[in-house]
Specification:
The protein is an alpha+beta fold and 507 residues long. The protein folds into 2 domains: 264 residues, NADH Oxidase (3-Layer(aba) Sandwich); 197 residues, NADH Oxidase. The protein has 15 helices and 18 strands. The strands form 4 sheets. A 7-stranded antiparallel sheet has the order 1-6-5-4-7-9-8, with helices on both faces. Helix 2 packs across helix 6 and helix 5 packs across helix 6.
């Protein structure tokens, strides 16, 4: 008897792009603003605390210089953290108006992730919920109240909260992406939020914090506490900012993983797949905990694989260079079709995966569930073909030799960007197995994790001068076929690397 699909599997299957299938045109009437615009008579201007002169949005909205002595020191640290995490690092004028490019890339430059700040009781800031107004680089009070302890309880009182100076809450605003990508937008919202989370860890370290994020919390009560409309916005990550001095190398800041039920449907009449998968993956307080464990990963029989190829080169080049890298970073929109070196590829893969799991802070939710594949197209010293990357060993295994650049371009919806890339990094997961472990919540965990890893690949490539872009639109089943993967495996994300063509940059 075949296994009944869970709601997450129904969503994944229902949002696949299929060769020859119909694509929904963007719903221009539903297009949403890429930022909220809360009104407050007392916003906190963060511009004076930036550590460079030429702020992309121009002068501060306040005419008079701010007396920094009137605000607690945490404001300056939050200003820099927020800017380098998701702030506006570029401006482009177009006939449609002003477009802001941000520190973290986003599919279609739609920026569905909203960032809120909840100060801790001892931070010196008035307690309550603040929205980060990207377009003005301000903290805008949304409402007052002692939220910190209630949020802690809804996050199952994990140890990091007892030591945190503040919380960052990352939410997804569905319509910002769904007007263009419809139900598949949920995948991209999770990936984009993973990009932001990746930046957050590096920005926090620059300010003397460690980030201890969790995507496991009581969804309903937390959304109600924050007065979120569940049809419009959902909480995706809660991230305590813990002083480095409070981080014990031998102790965990987060508790055990939480799982949601496995929902078998049905989808309510009139409910979209996007809303159904978010609802179906909600966690209640009485849901069981789960400790992570290693997942065996045999996509092919070992005797079919060639001897492993050590990559050797590692990379710590972002140490002290994160701010300048993230400000100058832009996604590549065209490649020349030229080669990149094996050493550069080795460094990018090393940093992308090793940086995602630092020290005692578990940055990712379920990284052992994600597998990394590599389609080599134009790498010096490597035979073209499909490989599997082993992060712990920093080795690659040949799975399938051959030149697949045309197939790769087709898999990426016919994009020349994939066909002309020197290499394509593909992240996948055994979705059925992950759901058996984490319930339908696995869908969130996996895509957030893939977004974090993708962002570190992006930053390492940018630092090395290699062109890079993330691709969330692809023919799912065709990618599985190319990688020789079973149908139970979900393709999460593609990252393309190559020699950038001149004057091609976007988000």
């Amino acid at each position: 008897m075949s296994r009944e699909q869970s709601l997450a599997e129904i969503f994944h299957e229902g949002t696949k792009y299929r060769d020859g299938g119909a694509f929904h045109a963007p719903d221009l009437a539903a297009q949403a603003s890429p930022y909220k615009d809360f009104h407050s008579e007392q916003p906190i201007d963060l511009v004076p605390d930036l550590n460079f002169e030429n702020f992309p949005l121009g002068p501060s909205s306040h005419q008079q210089p701010r007396d920094s002595s009137l605000l607690p020191p945490i404001v300056g640290r939050l200003s820099r953290l927020l800017f380098y995490t998701c702030g506006a690092t570029g401006v482009r004028q177009s006939p449609e108006g002003v477009q802001l490019f941000r520190a973290a890339p986003s599919a279609g430059a739609l920026y569905p992730t909203e960032t809120y700040v909840v100060p801790g009781p001892g931070s010196g800031l008035e307690e309550g919920l603040y929205d980060y107004a990207v377009h003005r680089h301000q903290l805008v009070p949304v409402f007052e109240g002692e939220l910190f302890e209630e949020i802690r309880q809804h996050c199952f009182s994990t140890p990091a909260f007892a030591k945190a100076d503040a919380l960052l809450i990352l939410t997804g605003i569905y319509r910002r992406s769904s007007w263009r990508y419809h139900d598949r937008a949920y995948r991209r919202i999770l990936l984009d939020t993973g990009h932001v989370l990746g930046n957050l860890r590096l920005a926090a370290e620059s300010e003397g914090w460690r980030v201890a994020p969790t995507s496991a919390f009581e969804d309903g009560p937390l959304a109600q506490l924050l007065f979120l409309d569940p049809k419009e916005e959902g909480v995706l990550v809660v991230a305590p900012l813990v002083p480095e001095t409070e981080v014990d190398a031998g102790g965990a800041l987060l508790g055990p993983m939480r799982r949601s039920p496995i929902s078998r449907g049905p989808i309510s009449t009139g409910e979209s797949l996007l809303h159904a998968v978010h609802r179906g993956s909600e966690i209640d307080r009485d849901d069981p905990v789960h400790s992570t464990g290693t997942l065996p990963w045999p996509p092919a029989e070992e005797e079919e694989l060639r001897a492993p190829i050590p990559l050797g080169k590692t990379f710590d080049g972002l140490a002290g260079a994160f701010p300048e890298t993230v400000v100058s970073r832009r996604s590549t929109r065209a490649f020349t079709g030229g080669v990149i070196s094996r050493d550069a590829l080795a460094k990018i893969l090393d940093y992308g995966h090793r940086a995602a799991s630092p020290g005692p802070v578990r940055l990712l939710q379920a990284p052992e569930r994600i597998a990394t594949h590599l389609v080599v197209q134009r790498i010096t010293g490597l035979e073209p073909g499909v490989y599997r990357y082993l992060p712990d060993e920093h080795e690659i295994l040949m799975v399938r030799p051959g030149d697949f650049h045309r197939e790769m371009g087709h898999c990426a919806l016919g994009q020349d960007l994939a066909a002309n890339a020197a290499a394509v990094v593909v992240h996948t997961a055994d979705l059925a197995s992950a759901i058996d472990t984490y319930g339908d919540r696995a869908y969130r965990y996996l895509h957030l994790d893939a977004g974090v890893i993708g962002q570190y690949l992006n930053l390492a490539a940018a630092r090395l001068g290699v062109g890079v872009s993330g691709i969330g639109g692809f023919f799912d089943d065709e990618v599985n076929t190319l990688l020789n993967l079973p149908a139970t495996h979900a393709v999460l994300y593609l990252t393309v690397l190559g020699e950038p063509a001149p004057s091609h940059g976007a988000d």
